[in-house]
Task: structure prediction
Amino acid sequence: MVDRVFTDVELAALYDRLNPWGAGDDFYLDLVMAAGTVLDVGCGTGRLLRGARAAGHRGRLTGVDPAAAMLVQARRAEPDVEWVLGDLATHRWDGAFDLVVMTGHAFQELLTDEEVRCCLRGVRRALADGGRFVFETRNPAARPWERWTPERVYEITDEDGAPVRVWHDAEPAPVGDRLTFTETYAGARWAGPQVCRSTLRFLGTDALDGFLGAAGLAAAERYGDWGRGPLTPACPEIITVAAAPAQSSEALSSSDLSAGSSTTSSSR
Result:
């Protein structure tokens, strides 16, 4: 199920204002501009691919997301990109892309082992031989949820210029590798605060590598920040560049080719 913050049209319209372009977007944009064909899984408002088109990318750019409200923002802003409603279970691309990305911590919204396996199988199918899959998750060793408290209020404005206040309230610690939190929006446009509840999964590198290997992918590079620094326990991110083997797709097992997959919208 997609979180309400991505399915509510009013809340989706605030996403880019709450999450302005930053160093992570620059990191991914460099990769996209160097690739001929790109699939953005859980593309949300499509900011990355819109930025690539504006920067002069003329190749195939495809964004897929299960939240129609987010894709409304994408299509309004840039019609010259292939925006697809759904996920890797409802749409299948066989060896069509040089690069697949999953940004905005969307990978952390895959809460079960089977969701992760299915997503990665879909990614592997979509990649051309030798292609790359790049994604990031928050580093659990850095305990980022300790900073998700109601005292940290973000103040933005809506499309009419009216102020909106946003804050988070996280559980004290993950239960296993899952952490639940609320994201609250307050402003004059609503009769009362709009509270959205979400759960994220925090996986370490060993678990990530195990899932990647089972899908026929291998971590080729790993960074701890958007400046490509080494991963340490204090780093905020686990940024993974995974590679598909340079082999014919016919060499993949029949089970890999027939298995379903799924994904979800970008996390924030």
